[in-house]
From TrEMBL:
<dbReference type="GO" id="GO:0006629">
    <property type="term" value="P:lipid metabolic process"/>
</dbReference>
<dbReference type="GO" id="GO:0016042">
    <property type="term" value="P:lipid catabolic process"/>
</dbReference>
<keyword id="KW-0443">Lipid metabolism</keyword>
<feature type="domain" description="Partial AB-hydrolase lipase">
    <location>
        <begin position="59"/>
        <end position="119"/>
    </location>
</feature>
<protein>
    <recommendedName>
        <fullName>Lipase</fullName>
    </recommendedName>
</protein>
<feature type="active site" description="Charge relay system">
    <location>
        <position position="402"/>
    </location>
</feature>
<feature type="domain" description="Serine aminopeptidase S33">
    <location>
        <begin position="124"/>
        <end position="240"/>
    </location>
</feature>
<feature type="active site" description="Charge relay system">
    <location>
        <position position="366"/>
    </location>
</feature>
<dbReference type="InterPro" id="IPR029058">
    <property type="entry name" value="AB_hydrolase_fold"/>
</dbReference>
<dbReference type="InterPro" id="IPR006693">
    <property type="entry name" value="AB_hydrolase_lipase"/>
</dbReference>
<dbReference type="Pfam" id="PF04083">
    <property type="entry name" value="Abhydro_lipase"/>
</dbReference>
<feature type="active site" description="Nucleophile">
    <location>
        <position position="195"/>
    </location>
</feature>
<dbReference type="InterPro" id="IPR022742">
    <property type="entry name" value="Hydrolase_4"/>
</dbReference>
<keyword id="KW-0442">Lipid degradation</keyword>
<dbReference type="Pfam" id="PF12146">
    <property type="entry name" value="Hydrolase_4"/>
</dbReference>
<dbReference type="InterPro" id="IPR025483">
    <property type="entry name" value="Lipase_euk"/>
</dbReference>
<dbReference type="GO" id="GO:0016298">
    <property type="term" value="F:lipase activity"/>
</dbReference>
Length: 428
């Protein structure tokens, strides 16, 4: 197969299902990219922004101190990391992050760290946390324009893209948490993830217990774990429309949502009966209640970002199987080579210690983080966490959909204020 895809265990049925996860590829607002009149416009603009850096393009103009950092994973990916050590107007003596509680923010799939900076300083979580006295760290996963480098590979190599969210959890998140912990003077940090950023945290917490020693708590916004109940009509249509053979022989190792091929796929889906592509955001993410045009325009200037095709296949396996497990290489032999067993090991979220504080916020209109799937996750967590006390806090917003949690104009009071109150309880 061209593009080295066999190393990923690509199977025709897997790629057919992978197209059903285009909705995840644009997790949250990324779907809006296809509203752009010219495919690829956001990609080129994003690369200009990347050359300038997030600090210069999105943080410093609002009067915040900002630092650009890099951290290298054990498998050689060089990740970009931004630090906002102080709030607006804070003096150098009072800033610098010294002694402050750190918070690590992790974006979702096909997004980057700008996720947390898309609205005004009064409405975006990154700025709000800095203004409330936190030492803010913003992660950018491998494959985004901010984290495109590697110690020995270039992004045009198919080997560069030989990863899924397993590696985002075990390699990227691990390296970033250890780096922030060290830079912050071995201060335990709070973690906040959105969408796929919640899945990699749940996997790490259940599979890598050493991470817990560096974390105070985890805030999970639009949690993604079990995926078989996703209700997006566009996702279900994608699985029916696209030919597995075409995808199988395409051999793409990099999945670029701004590319001409993906754009044409979405165009074809939009021709199917019952699919309303005049409102792509709602078709993908659910009916978001509270977005405004300015945040969507910031999104279009930066997103969506590329990911690995292998990552898309992994998510498709979850939709098909209804489980949270490591990447399935498609046959018992390859799985044994990687895992020592014929089937991929499952991530057991019930193994997350019951005294580790979790904050989950989900929406009634979210078609990616579906209410039924979140309920299943909560039942699993309930086996170790009791809702009595402050170790498992659950917030349900009936009118919120997937993008609202990072882009809504009223998320500050509805989501971020309760989240920070939860943080304060864990800091006592």
């Amino acid at each position: 197969m061209p593009g080295g895809g066999n190393r990923c265990g690509l199977q025709p049925i897997s790629l057919l299902q992978a197209l059903a996860t285009i909705i995840l590829a644009v997790a949250a607002a990324a779907a809006a990219a296809w509203l752009a009149p010219i495919a690829g416009t956001s990609s080129s603009t994003s690369r200009v922004a990347a050359a300038n850096g997030t600090c210069q393009s999105r943080v410093a103009p609002f009067g915040y101190a900002c630092e650009e950092h890099t951290v290298t994973t054990e498998d050689g990916y060089i990740l970009s990391l931004q630090r906002i050590p102080s709030g607006r107007g804070e003096t150098a003596a009072g800033g610098g992050g010294g002694g402050k509680v750190p918070v690590l923010l992790q974006h979702g799939l096909m997004m980057d760290g700008v996720t947390w900076l898309m609205n005004s300083p009064n409405e975006s979580l990154g700025y709000i946390l800095a203004d409330n006295g936190y030492d803010v760290w913003i992660a950018n996963s491998r494959g985004t324009v901010y984290s495109r480098h590697h110690t020995s590979l270039v992004s045009s190599d198919s080997a560069y893209w030989n990863w899924s969210w397993d590696e985002l959890s075990s390699k990227d998140l691990s390296a970033v948490v250890q780096y922030v912990y060290s830079q912050a003077g071995q201060q335990k940090m709070h973690y906040v993830g959105h969408s796929l950023g919640t899945l990699i945290a749940l996997a790490a917490l259940s599979d890598q217990q050493q991470q817990i020693g560096m974390l105070r708590s985890a805030g999970l916004l639009s949690p993604i774990a079990f995926l078989d109940k996703m209700s997006s009509p566009l996702a279900r249509a994608a699985a029916d429309v696209f030919l597995a053979e075409a995808l199988y022989w395409l051999g793409l190792s990099e999945f670029d949502p701004t590319g001409e091929y993906v754009h044409s796929l979405v165009t074809d889906i939009c021709k199917q009966p019952g699919i309303d592509c005049y409102n792509l955001m709602s078709a993908f993410t659910g009916d978001n209640c509270c977005l405004d045009n300015s945040s969507v325009q910031v999104f279009l200037a930066h997103e969506p970002q590329a990911t690995a095709t292998k990552n898309m296949i992994h998510l498709a396996q979850m939709i098909r199987g209804g489980t949270i497990a490591k990447y399935d290489y498609g046959n018992a032999g390859d799985n044994r080579e990687h895992y020592g067993q014929a089937t991929p090991p499952a991530y057991d979220v019930t193994a997350i210690p019951g005294d580790f504080p979790l904050f989950l916020s989900y929406g009634g209109r979210d078609s990616l983080s579906d209410v039924q799937d979140v309920s299943r996750l909560l039942r699993a967590l309930g086996q170790s966490h009791s809702r009595d006390g402050d170790k498992l806090t659950v917030q349900y917003l009936a009118d919120y959909a997937h993008a609202d949690f990072v882009m809504a104009r009223n998320a500050g009071e509805r989501v971020y204020a309760p989240l920070m109150a939860f943080f304060k309880l864990q800091e006592k």
